[in-house]
Inverse folding.
């Protein structure tokens, strides 16, 4: 996405419908007859992959990779899910696919998309706004792009009933964690581990300047340290911090729109 921002590339998001069932099986797989089609002494042999099979994701990756190679794209050795040619960059995660290209190459990209449609059932989403649960915000005149996970933060704050807590000023307390004199119950330990685990998933896609807060929270996963208040503060701080950034974006675009209207 940084490449798209720097070079002001167009984005085209595609969604493959029922991706796994496009792949043929490379081994014999049998299953019971579905309800209503039971026949004594008979079972079903699968011809294509189904959702739930362990090999289905791998078979789909091999199938899509073969198709892209047949279309004369080059696979990036360091990133097996990224392919390039002379006029586009395409990358995918399971059935979510994105194409980056210069606007003057749109006609070639549309021909490439039609080639994919010959093999797969694909829905054209259009210019990317959401990808893998991440909001994509672009300021194309200034060639800037932001990735925002505010929907995920709202989800975990609502999940743990933290949406009405008073927002902290910093993501981590300046005081040291106090040794717990007792032992947390298994239910409290499980709840605390859920909170920290949810934030670790979020932090894996973010900048490292808030990892210290999570690192300290991880030290009390067994319930031996009193880190429960810290686990409350982090998601609420993330939510407030993200809302402030979004408000800054909106005010920026409003000011630009007003300035253009005045010029008109």
């Amino acid at each position: 996405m940084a490449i798209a921002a720097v070079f002001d590339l167009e984005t085209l998001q595609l969604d493959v419908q029922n991706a796994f069932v496009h792949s043929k099986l490379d081994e014999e797989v049998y299953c019971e007859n579905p309800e209503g089609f039971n026949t004594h002494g008979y079972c079903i042999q699968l011809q294509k992959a189904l959702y739930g099979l362990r090999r289905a994701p791998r078979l789909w990756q091999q199938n899509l990779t073969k198709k892209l190679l047949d279309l004369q794209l080059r696979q990036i050795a360091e990133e097996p899910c990224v392919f390039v040619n002379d006029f586009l960059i395409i990358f995918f995660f399971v059935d979510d696919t994105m194409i980056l290209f210069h606007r003057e190459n749109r006609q070639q990209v549309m021909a490439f998309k039609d080639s994919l449609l010959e093999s797969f059932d694909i829905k054209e989403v259009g210019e990317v706004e959401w990808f893998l649960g991440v909001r994509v915000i672009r300021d194309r005149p200034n060639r800037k792009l932001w990735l925002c996970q505010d929907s995920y933060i709202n989800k975990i704050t609502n999940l743990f009933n933290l949406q009405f807590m008073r927002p902290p000023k910093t993501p981590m307390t300046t005081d040291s964690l106090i040794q717990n004199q007792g032992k947390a119950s298994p239910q409290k330990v499980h709840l605390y581990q859920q909170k920290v685990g949810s934030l670790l998933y979020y932090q894996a896609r973010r900048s490292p300047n808030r990892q210290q807060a999570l690192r300290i929270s991880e030290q009390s996963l067994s319930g031996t340290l009193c880190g429960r208040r810290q686990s409350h503060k982090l998601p609420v701080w993330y939510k407030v911090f993200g809302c402030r950034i979004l408000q800054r974006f909106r005010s920026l675009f409003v000011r630009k729109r007003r300035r253009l209207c005045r010029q008109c």
User: Anything to note?
Assistant: The first strand starts at residue 10 and ends at 16.
